[in-house]
Each structure stands twice: as structure tokens, then as C-alpha cells.
Amino acid sequence: MGESPRLPMKARNATLSEFETAPNDTRDVPQSVDFSDKSTRSDDMEDSLEEWISELQEATEDARGAEVFRQWLDAQAKLHDYSPRNTALIHMQKPDASMVAGFWTWQNEFDRSVKEGESAIWIWRPNTITAKKCPHCGNAPNYHEDNEDLNCPLAPDAPEQWDSEDPNEWTKGEILTGFSPAPVFDVSQTEGKPLPESPDTDAEAVEAGQGEDVLTALQDAAREIGFPVEVVDVDEWDRDAKAIARTSEDPPEIEIQDRDPAAAAGDLAHEIAHAVLHTGWDNPERPEREIEAEAVAYVVGRYFGLDTSGSKFYLAAWAGNEPEEITERMKTISNTAAKIIEAADD
After folding, report:
1. Cα 181 from chain centroid?
2. Numbers of helices and strands, H then E, in the chain
3. Which domain of life does the UniProt lineage start with (predicted)?
4. Model's pTM, two decimal places?
């Protein structure tokens, strides 16, 4: 996995078309952006993210929008521990990145060193302080004083007015104070001790026999999250869909048709997403629900090596959404996929 050519951020910000690659396109990896200028790095990172989301918003009714969205989902499947913003930033800078970590993490935990001359990939790192924090909202006492609109039962009263919950008795914990740029490097930028071998999770291997293991893991994950799963014999199945989540029930029950394990695992990932996201949902728009569930299932499927080639993303259902709404939807997809992956991995 070679390093992609880098274009200075000062020259221009990344645009949607730079990350667009048709399904059968044989061109090289798209050119990446660069955040090497320390004096403008934070602004450049924010500007690139805002422009990327804005152009995705404008392309919701265009096929290229769906392809760029798919590419982001591919990155999310490989980097599911990272936030949607950081996954997008990593993809912008190094589209072929598959596993990233900080300089000292590579050295101390994996006994690998960053190769000489490699350029860092910049992401947002949360900055925290350890201090007394509100048991309701997690903020510091002085934050309540300065924010009258804070959604907390103890705001906007000043700390000295709290009788029942004295701030001096609050336990200490980490409080988020903001974000700052932090450098990470892809595994292809390092050398040293070989990484532990990962299970073979390409689609052919899963179809050849690992599909049953993935299906079992996802069944266990659904139950751990709180959704019972029933596998119904194909002769008794009387529905058009191959799986269903009864999101009107509490807890929602998931039923899947007893068929090829790899295919059933993909169906189950989709229905777990529905159960997590849409139980008791008061939004009747089915297309929006389907995009979210399909996107989550795609990330989970890619992570476990399922065949996701039939996934469809009709982003036209997002047409008219503001960039903030699209960002929130991407965060929801990312968090839900990570929740399912972590439960299944356990």
C-alpha cells in the first residue's frame, strides 16, 4: 500500500470528486490532501470536513454521492473505532489506510517503527481534564454558571445554591474541553515486528465456511444488546423479506429465515440495526430508515467479510437535509455499527 501523492491544502481543499471512484474504475488511488502546515492545520481540517459534508449533501440525488458514501462506509468498516469525522479525515489524507495508530503506540504496543520520511495523518484528538463533574450532565461546576441554557436539572443555578448535591462532594472524572489535531500513521507507513495474524474474513472465505461463525456471533450480539432472535425454517417462512425486526414490540423480536449462513448473517445485521435505531421511532419515512440500516449492515458485513456487493444506498431520501443533519446521521451509523461489531467480537 504505497503513499498517495499529496496536494497542499493551501492550494485547495478536498472536493467530493477527488474521492469518487466508479465501481469498476482502475485508476490509481485518488489524490489525498495534506495538513502539514501547522499554522493553518486546525482550520484546514475543519474546512475540509465541512466542504466534504456540504458536497455530499449537494450530491444526494446523484450517483456519485452514493459512491462516495460507500467509500466512507468502507473506511468505517476498517477503522470502526474512530469517529465519523476522523474516519473521513483519514480517508481524505490516505484513502488506502487500513489500520492507524500513534507513533508511540506502534512502537510500544506493536514493536514497529514509523518509516523515515513518512508524513503523519492528522485526526482530531479529544482534550480532557480531570476535575469534579456534575453527576447529571458530566460538566464542571463553573460550566453551569456560564451556560444558562444547559440542559441539566442543576442549571442555571450557581454551585453555592445547590443544597442537595454539593459540588464539593462530586467525584472526579474526565471532562471534555475540546479537540486538537493529533498525528497517526497507517500500518503501511511502519516496519518491524509482524502483526498478529487476523482471521481470514474475505467474502470467499466466509462463504466457504466462516459464514456460520459470523451468523452465530451476530446472534449472540443481538441477544447481548437485548433483542431475541428466532431462526425460522424456510418451509414455515411466509414473508417477502428474508428477515424482519418487530420494532413496535418491546423488546423488538428479530426473525430470520434459515438459509445460507453468510446471507442470513447479512440479513441479521440489517435487522439488528433496525432494532437498535428504530424501536418506537416516530419518523414514518421508510427510505430514511432503510439507508441507516443498510449502511450499518454494510459496515458490519465488510468488517466480518460478508458479501456486501448487493448493498444499495439511495441517498435521495436525504435530499434537503442540512449538513448538520447528515453529519448526525453518519455519527448514528458509525456508533451503531461499532456497537454491533464490538458485541459480536466479544
Report:
1. 19
2. 10, 10
3. Archaea
4. 0.76
